[in-house]
Design a protein that fits this description.
Shape: globular
Largest sheet: 7 strands, mixed
Number of strands: 15
Strand order of the largest sheet: 4-10-9-8-7-5-6
Strand content: 15-25%
């Protein structure tokens, strides 16, 4: 055990998860690469849990942060902040939500808390619909709506949560149906569920489930849900903490794959917009955002230095068409990995969109999860110079790949080659 690891264990909680048998200390990064304390270089295919969205040490973001820090770092939302207003204007413009208002937080967890506060206040109901296999954060209320046992340490909650089918296409009672039949069955389940309860405040859903292993329903499921929800006055909250800002390649927001019935009532975001800085937030129509009848502030949400980073990062993303790059390079990477998977009986599925790719592992000849192999592949990939993530929900284990959106074709091929070697070495 390293000296830093021993110190970590003495002063930090046992439940604070660490990757690798010999945990890694990352000291610096550049582009799509990072280095550890021993000088080893790695190609980063996880980006600090989908947070380093554009690139490590991106000069435009570094310059914006440095210049802003030289003026003022923080003053709170009790004072006007030009960077906060400017970023809110840009996010409102790209949100797709009419008459949008934006509230900044410091994390996705806090953003989802805020969305739940708004929905339950407006609807005067503490019942919430959530998806099975979902993950929405670490706070008391977010844990209470998380449909993933591995990340939900308590059943206590200020909310009554009812879980809906549909977030996982390839498993569960509807897995054998066609896409259209799958959607019909999930809608029928939702209608039946609503017949047994008072009208909920909202449905909260990740367009692609992140921690759950990058699973998703067929396109159009949430549009079909929306028609049912609207008939009952129930709000739709899209948790875009991991899917936002063009990561899926085909769309700027994950909800746009389900946009036939219009945009969500509320969108939550975080992670990638700050490229490593702590930015989260909520977008909602004015009538929803303004429903609170008490004062509120955000001490650190919208602070000047993080807003400067967000502005520079969003500008870079749009000016360099990183969404298009995610679509092109991500498409090549997915096909390359599917070719690898065809030769590996322990790979059940390669799925995803853009640069949000899941590789689900099972024990060969069965449909049972193989978490031991997932951990072994993580170690072998690291030894080969590649950092990846892992996830999964009920009886699943998946590798998670989410490189910065500026990934090059050569780097995608390099990462795929390393991962191929890691899979072969663990068969």
């Amino acid at each position: 055990m390293s000296e830093l690891h021993a110190r970590h264990r003495r002063v930090l909680p046992d439940w604070l998860a660490l990757y690798y048998e010999d945990p890694l200390e990352i000291t610096h990064g550049e582009g799509r690469h990072v280095w550890d304390a021993e000088g080893n270089k790695y190609l980063d295919f996880f980006g600090g849990i989908l947070t380093t969205m554009t690139a490590h040490a991106l000069p435009e973001v570094t310059k914006a942060v440095s210049e802003q820090a030289g003026r003022i770092i923080h003053s709170s939302t009790l004072y006007l902040s030009r960077p906060m207003v400017e970023l809110a204007e840009r996010i409102a413009h790209v949100s797709g939500i009419p008459d949008a208002r934006v509230f900044f937080t410091t994390s996705g967890t806090e953003a989802n808390d805020t969305a739940l506060l708004l929905a339950t206040t407006l609807r005067r109901s503490n019942t919430v619909l959530a998806m099975r296999n979902s993950y929405h954060g670490r706070s008391f209320s977010a844990v209470g709506i998380t449909g993933n046992r591995g990340w939900s340490p308590t059943s206590l909650s200020p909310l009554q949560t009812l879980y809906v089918h549909g977030g996982v296409r390839g498993r569960g009672p509807f897995a054998g149906l066609s896409d259209a039949e799958f959607i019909d069955a999930c809608v029928a389940d939702l209608k039946d569920l609503l017949g047994h309860t008072r009208a909920p405040a909202a449905l909260i859903a990740e367009p692609i489930q992140g921690v759950g292993g990058f699973t998703s329903p067929p396109d159009g499921l949430y549009a079909a849900f929306r028609e049912v929800l609207d008939a009952h006055g129930i709000l739709w909250i899209a948790d875009e903490v991991q899917t936002g800002w063009g990561r899926t390649g085909e769309h700027f927001w994950g909800w746009q794959a389900h946009g036939r019935s219009g945009p969500p009532d509320i969108v939550t975001f975080a992670k990638g917009i700050g490229n490593g800085m702590s930015i989260g937030g909520v977008i909602a129509r004015a009538e929803i955002m303004n429903c609170l009848d008490a004062n509120s502030i955000s001490t650190f949400g919208g602070t000047q230095v993080t807003m400067a980073a967000g502005l520079a990062n969003l500008s870079y993303l749009l000016e360099h068409d990183l969404q298009g790059n995610a679509r092109r390079v991500g498409g090549l990477l997915i096909e390359r990995l599917r070719a690898v998977a065809a030769q590996d009986p322990g790979v059940r599925e390669v799925r995803g969109r853009g640069l949000m790719i899941g590789v689900e592992l099972t024990r060969p000849g069965t449909d049972r999860a193989d978490p031991d192999r997932a951990a072994a592949v993580l170690e072998a990939a690291r030894a080969g110079g590649l950092l990846i993530g892992k996830g999964g929900g009920h009886d699943t284990s998946a590798l998670r790949l989410a490189p910065p959106l500026s990934l090059t074709v050569a780097e995608a091929e390099e990462g795929a080659t390393i991962l191929e070697g890691a899979l072969r070495s663990t068969q």
